[in-house]
C-alpha cells in the first residue's frame, strides 16, 4: 500500500485561525439549512456543502500543522459541529465524523500520514470502527477482509478507517486494530435507506483480502492508553488526549446541535401559533413557557458537561499527568447522558409543537427523526457506560477498556 511513494515536505500553517473558521461556518448556516430537505432526499450531503466547509477550513481544525492544519482547540471544533447540526442534522453528523478523523490519522506512523496528506492535505477519510472484519498476521502487516456498515460520509472520502480483529495462525484473537485503506482497495455498497440521518450516506464498505502494512494500522489497546506512533512527529498536547473520549463526543455533539435547532424552530413556531382549542396564542401559555425552559436547560447542561470534560482532560495533559480512569468514566457518563438530555429536549418540544410540526419538510420533525437515529449509535449505549461509572463509585474495580 503506497510503497515507494515520495515523502513530501510538510506544508506551511495556513493563514486561518479557529475563530476565522467558526465565523466562516456561521456564514454557511443559512445555506446548509436551506439544503437540509434536499440533503435528505439525496441520501448524501451535497458535494457543494462539503466543499464550502473545506474552503472555510473546517476539516483542518484538528489536522496537524505540518500538513496545513490548525491543531485547534477541540472545543472550537465541536462548537462548529454543534452549529452545523443545528441547521442540518445529516450535514452536522458527517462533518463531525469526517472532521475528527484528521486527529486520529495524526496518531498513525508518519508513513501513513504522508500517504494520506503528502500530496493533498485536503484528503478526507471516512470510517467504520466496529470489528466486523478479520485480519490475519502476515509478514510486514496484515491481510484484511470483511464488510463494514455505517461509514458516514464515505462518498466524500478517498481513504477509510476500519476496525478489525487480528487473528494468529491458531485462529486466536490477538489484537483489535484500526486499518487505514485507500479508496482503490475497497468497494462502497449503497444500502442507506433509513428514516433518520438519511442524508449521511452511511453506506457499507467491502474489503476482500487486502494487504495493509503495519504502519497503516493502530492498535486500540495502544490508543486506549493515549499512545500512538504519530506522537513522535505530532508532539502537541492535542494528540495526547484520550481517543475514545474524543470520538464519543463526536457522536453526541451533533445530537445536541439537532436539539438546539429544534429548540429555535419550536420557539419561532409558537410565536405565531394560535391554539384553536383554547383560543390563545401558544406563546402566552404558561405551560408552554415551562417546556421551553426545561428543554433549554437540558440542552445547555448536556453541552456544558461535555465541554467541561474536555477542558479537564486538557488540564491533565498540560500538566503531563495521566488521565485518571475515574475521569474517563465520568466523560462517558456525561456523554451518554448528554445524548439522552438532548433527545428528551427534542421529544418535549416536538410533543408541544402541534400538528403542523408533522408536515414533511418541517425542520422540527426532521430534527426529531435525525436525533433518534443518532441515538442508536453504539457510542450512545447508556447502560454499559453508566454501569461502569456506578460500579466504580461503589469501589468495585472497573476496566474501562476502550472507554
TrEMBL record:
Residues 19-117 form the Acyl-CoA dehydrogenase/oxidase N-terminal domain. It comes from Nocardioides turkmenicus. GO terms for molecular function: acyl-CoA dehydrogenase activity; flavin adenine dinucleotide binding; oxidoreductase activity, acting on paired donors, with incorporation or reduction of molecular oxygen, reduced flavin or flavoprotein as one donor, and incorporation of one atom of oxygen. Residues 250-381 form the Acyl-CoA dehydrogenase C-terminal domain. GO terms for biological process: fatty acid beta-oxidation using acyl-CoA dehydrogenase. Keywords: Monooxygenase, Oxidoreductase. GO terms for cellular component: cytoplasm. Residues 1-25 are annotated as: Disordered. Belongs to the HpaH/HsaA monooxygenase family. This is Flavin-dependent monooxygenase. Pfam families: Acyl-CoA_dh_2 (PF08028), Acyl-CoA_dh_N (PF02771).
